[in-house]
Each structure stands twice: as C-alpha cells, then as structure tokens.
Amino acid sequence: MNPNNPMRKVYYLSTCSTCKRIMDDLNLSNFEQQDIKTTAITADQLEQMKEMSGSYESLFSRKAMKFRSMGLNEMTLEEKDYRKYILDEYTFLKRPVFIIDDQIFVGNSKKVVEELKALLN
User: Fold this and answer.
1) What is d(CA 98, CA 11) in angstroms, rounded to the nearest whole number?
2) Burial (0-12, 13-18, 19+ Cβ within 10 Å), 5
3) Taking a C-beta distance cutoff of 8 angstroms, is the pair 104, 98 a contact?
4) Which residues contact 94 (CB under 8 A, 6 or more apart)?
5) How much is the pLDDT for 27?
C-alpha cells in the first residue's frame, strides 16, 4: 500500500439499515464509498477482499434471503461457489466491508464493529 495514498474504502448496501447505522457512527469523510446495489463489485475487487480475508466463504452472507430460497443451505458449497454467488447476487456479500490500508473488516458483528471503531478513533 502506498503510504502517501492510504486505501480507505467501504462496500455497503444503501438499503441496509445496519450498514447505515454503523456508517453513521463513523467519520467516513475520507473513505471511498461503494453502494454494491448501484455499483456492482468487480471480480478484481472481490479477489482483493478474498486475499485480505483469507477466503470467499468469510465474505459470504448466509443471512441473505436468497440463501434459503435458492436451496443453498442444503448444498455443500466450495470456494468457487461462494465466489460465483457473491458476484452473481450482491446480497451474498457480507456487509459492510471496510478496507483500511492492509486491514479488512467484514460484516456487522459486535466484535468487528468494535475493532473498526478502535482503529478509526
């Protein structure tokens, strides 16, 4: 990462009240913000997230409504499947995803949000 140009980006869903609540609690004035509903994540962006988080599965949301409606809860998914579903359907990305330099914060668990706030404050 270029120290003169730090990476600060958040991938979120504008219709997600949890994303909004988390983002409203933070100063995101120097963050690039990408609403994944209006600007789909690219394969390259997803690859970067996977490299940082360790797997596509760690980025995959089992809470998405389509997870059960598509019968995915009854299937054994592999990394290639997680990648495909996240790229095909934005709701499968666990969100929000914050990238700050070489660190990634995925999802809205209390632990993740506290770690994010600690870094930013």
Assistant:
1) 6
2) exposed
3) yes
4) 58, 59, 60, 61, 106, 107
5) 87
Q: How far is residue 37's CA from residue 11's CA, in Å, rounded to a whole number?
A: 10
**pLDDT of 5 strictly over 90:** no
Bridge partners, residue 8, by sequence: 100
Question: Which of 94, 99, 72, 111 shows the shortest CA–CA distance to 19?
Answer: 94
The Cβ of residue 4 has, within 10 Å, a number of other Cβ atoms equal to 5
Calpha distance 19→35 (Å, rounded) = 10
Quick: pLDDT tens for 61-109. Answer: 999 999 999 999 999 999 999 999 999 999 999 999 999 999 999 999 9
Query: Which among 18, 19, 12, 63 has a CA at the least distance from the CA of 38?
Result: 12
Which three-class secondary structure state does DSSP give residue 112?
helix
